[in-house]
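Form 12-C: Joint structure prediction
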Amino acid sequence: MEIVGQLQKQYVDFINSLFREGYLDDQYVQLQKLQDDSNPEFVVEVVSIFFEDSEKLLNDLASSIQQQVVDFKKVDGYVHQFKGSSSSVGAQRVKNACVAFRNFCEEKNLDGCSRFLNLVKQEFYLVKNKLETLLRLEQQILQAGGTVPLIE
Amino acid sequence: MSSNCKQSSSNGNLCSSLKQKKAWESLHRTADGRKWKRVVVFLWLVVALCGLVCALTSSNGGNSERKVETSVSSEFKTQVSLEYCNVSKEEFHALDSLFIESDRVASLACCRESGYEMPSSCTSTCRLKMKGSEKWHKLVAENVEFNAHCPSRDESISTYVGLPLSKNKTMSFISQLAFSSISSGHLWYKENELQMTELHNHATYNCESISFCLAKICLWILAGMVASFNILKLHEKFSSQKHEIIQETPRAQQSQLLQQSQSSSRSTGKWRKKILVVFVLAGVVFSFWLFWYLDKDIILRRKETLGSMCDERARMLQDQFNVSMNHVHALALLVSTFHHGKQPSAIDQKTFEDYTERTAFERPLTSGVAYALRVRHSERKEFEQQQGWAIKKMETEDQTLAQDCNLENFSTSPVQEEYAPVIFSQKTVSHIVSIDMMSGKEDRENILRARASGKGVLTSPFKLLKSNHLGVVLTFAVYNTHLPLDAIPEQRINATVGYLGASYDVPSLVAKLLHQLASKQTIVVNVYDTTNKLAPINMYGTDEADTGLPHISNLDFGDPTRKHEMQCRFKQKPPPPWQAITASVGVLVITLLLGHIFHAAINRIAKVERGYREMMELKHRAEAADVAKSQFLATVSHEIRTPMNGVLGMLQMLMDTNLDAMQLDYAQTAHANGKDLISLINKVLDQAKIESGRLELEAVPFDLRAVLDKVLSLFSRESQEQGLELAVYVSDQVPEVVIGDQERFGQIITNLVGNSIKFTQDKGHIFVSVHLANEVMLPLDARDEVLRQSLNIVQVGSNASYNTLSGFRVVDRWRSWENFKKFSGIPEETEKIKLLVTVEDTGAGIPPEAQCRIFTPFMQADSSTSRKYGGTGIGLSISKRLVELMGGEIGFVSELNIGSTFSFTVTFTKAEANYLDTMQQQCDLAVPEFRGLKALVIDERRVRAEVTRYHLKRLGISVDITSSMESAYSYVSCYGKTSVSEHLAMVLVDQDSWGKDICFPFHNLLKMIERNGSKSNSGIPLKIFLLATCISSTQRKELKLDRLVDNVITKPLRISALAFTFQEATGFGKMGHNTRAKPSTLRTLLKDKQILVVDDNAVNRRVAEGALKKYGAVVTCVEGGKVAVGLLKPPHKFDACFMDLQMPGMDGFEATRQIRSLESECNKKIDSGEASVDMSENFAHWHTPILAMTADVIQATNEECMKWPSQLRHLAATSDFPLATQLCHDLSESNPCSFHVELRLGDFRSAMGDIMINSTAIKQEYLPTSCLSLFSGHMYCAVPLRSEPYT
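Section 2 - Result
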């Protein structure tokens, strides 16, 4: 039980730091709330979809920005998608980066786009790491027989 | 010049004062410019005045000079003529006396014989003479006294008469003699006169040239003035243009344009400076040219004056000389006639001496005359004997008549071929008698030439001994016989009998002549004999210092072999050309002054422009700051609104749960406050939107009256709480349906009514009336009753009540629109209609000092207002903007403690007929059963009764009005007796008219009628309603218990409330709608519902699925629009569809459209019976609710939304969230919808999509509420979908 308690404490600290540092927002809590007995793997499912989807999107983005003639509309579409999915999982910093990214798309500023592509990538991998850690912690708690504490 | 100086000094003063005020004036550019303009104008005026004065004085001077000259000339004329008259007179005297002395008869005979000299045309000469004298007379008469000449004529005539032998010939001869002198004088005079006129002309020419010059200068100045004004104007125009351009251009281009304008102004500044330099240079050049031109002119004039004077003198000299010569000639003829022509001679030395002595005045220039006889050598002895003296020879060769008069000095002449001894001589030269003239070299040549030519000849000048003057000798030959005119020299020589000589003293001649003339001091005259061109001999005058070029005039003394000339020059050197100097210096000064002024002006302009640019920059910065501020405000507002909506939704949810009273109260308070906050934020956003010009009005057909009802319903509770009467009236002439922006229209009215409610407390009314703008213009009796009443507010009754809605006094509403500019601008035929909406209240009124800033944003009547009444003061400003956007005007009139009336006009388009139909249908839906009924309204206030009538009319009920219960009683009793076709179905009594005493009999009467009526008529019972503004529940209960009235209708009257009450009372419409289910919890609502989620984003899809599943829904997810359309093709199993709008391939809009078209096809089939009923299951009508989801509401979405049915767009675009919910609530109350029935929310029945929510909402707290609304029929706008450009 001590391990569970420790893990739970660690989990709470970690997730609170994520909220504090703005990696996640309220949406993640909403997701957690949607998870129940009928749908026990909901969060993991959504997050993994998010990872897959995002990696694909980032690849697409990178390739379309490297084109000789950049189709900003297309880029904008990708970013829009990315923004949607990141806001769905509550990856706030990615979402914010996407919002700024879209401004550059509208301006058709290639420099800004490449810069923000990097930023978005960076943010995405950062949040991916964090989420993976978080989910691992959850798994550990569950394996240890505890329950994942709910964050209000 | 002095004025110029003054001017410059004053200018200097101005300059300095201007400099002092520099800093201040840079702020007052326009005023400054005006000042400068004034200064320039003043300067120009001064310059022009100076020029004018100069011109005037100079022309005056010219005139006076001319006058002086003419007077001088006339004086001179007088003098000359007098002299000549005298001369001729004395001549006659001399002749007369001579003839008296000598033997007259003989002389006269001789005269007859020697008539050869006289031309045959004597008479003509006479006539000529007469003519000449007449001319003379005429000419002289102008200036000279007539008697100066006239006596002489008379005298001469008398002389003629006095002659004993007055024969024609003598007369003519004498007259010829006289004529020679007179005519020469006349000729001279004529020439003189000619000269005078010439001089005069010249003078006038000079005058003209001067005035011409001045005129030119004036013209130049004028041109300069015009040019400078043009430049000024041009500059002003240019700058103003710039200003305008700068103002007009959008902010984004402004900085660029500013730079452009800066550079352009800089370039114009340079250009201006160049022009100035050119102008100054041109001015300087012009002044030099002027100097040169005037100087040349002066020199020329001087030369001309000199020339004319010189010529005049030369001619006079010549004439005088010729006159003398003629006399000598005459003397020669005399000698020939009387000495040689007579035997014995009539002349001896004595006679000659006497005669010459007496006629010496005739030859004023001769020092003496002498006659020498031609003596041949053969005749010498005889001659010497006869004379008694020997012929002497001149001592020295070059000596002449004027030698020393010592006879002893002369030796006897040697033997010559012939001699010319002097026999007669004038007394002055009597010493030369007996001297042989042939012995002197000069004389001999002279004699030889004279006798050969027969004319007078001259010697070259030599010194006369006695006077020591230079002189010449004139010699005439005397012939003995009558020579033919064309006699050859040989004949002449042979016929010569003697020689007459006269010596002339040239210097005295010239001196005398000059003495006679004016201005002799100014010029120096020299006379030269230039026979020998190389060595001219000076005959008169001294060689003085050379003062410029002399003028040379030729002199002709009648001897062609001798040439003489006269040289004149001015005594003084020419004075400096003052006129030219003054003029050119003046021009120079003016130029420099102007240059200075313009330079200063240019500097000023540059400075002002610089200031202007700085101001512009500052202005831009300020504007940018302002924009940033509004953007910040808008952004913040927007950011607040999104979570706030969540809060509200949650509160709404919370209130639906089981709460105890305290909790409910808290939740309600929170909800109400949240709503207030949202409305404020929406207002701020509106303001920002209007300010940035992004607000677009839509053109949608709508029912104006319904909008007003909605507004009224918003305030009904408040007005009831405050005990205010709230009423709406729409004139019959206003069409049912108009095309415009109903939300904005409603917003304006809501704002105004809200304000009125806020400031009207516990008494009176708020009355909204809508009329056509043209109705106000109609004559009084053609107007609608309400308008007529409200425009003629009079006190009625004794208890200080007025004919207004509540009886309280109101302000005169005329005044609220009297300032409208385009009041009835739209003619009736056009598509547009103009409405006049008036909101009248009996509130606190607006203090006069605050009335001017009532429409300024965030400005309230006074700062305490917000503390007392709340509010931000933004509503009226928004209203004003909206009204302006709708092509109307807003105005108000307000009096403290009486109330305010706000009026505004809006322009709408008339709706087309088909719109009218659909709308009509909707309107009638609720109330078909009341059509054709009749109602009686009992109300003592006419306006209020009219309002009631208006509402009842809308339900299709015709209305009669009586003012009191008593009259109603009589009306009803009459009505009961006559069985009219129209059925009296209800009686509406106003609370104020309600009295217990009268109501019982009235009630009984009605009951009786009802009983009768129920037998005969359709069975609709007669009902009595009480209209009450505020009524307590106990009162209401009491009334109901009394069963005097069937129901109480609380004001404000609304069509839905009325219809409901009537339905309730009559039992109409009770069927059908009682299946209304109270919205259950979300779980039961969504349980087992088939829901299709369409989203291209996997994450979103999954989240939505999870969210919906949580509430028990059966969720199917698809990726794109196309698949969704395939799945939703009827028949299908889905109960609802959640659709993402932005999808690759087919987007949400297109998918929705296609789904709707599929549905309508299917519906048609069902209607026509083609499709089986079971295929459509239980649906009578296919209409799958589609819920649109969108993550970010960008402009494109909004544009796309425009293509959606307008009604949906309305709700989606409305910012007035509480209004929307309220509206939905109202509608759903009267038309409750079940889950399976399509959304029958009035306006939304033809909606393609049903609701739009923010897609993030589906995952968050909005989902439950939105789903609830979607399925329960409660319209709920989760997130007002508006394109906010601030995010």
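Section 3 - Comments
Chain B has 36 helices and 34 strands. The two ends of chain B are 74 Å apart (CA to CA).
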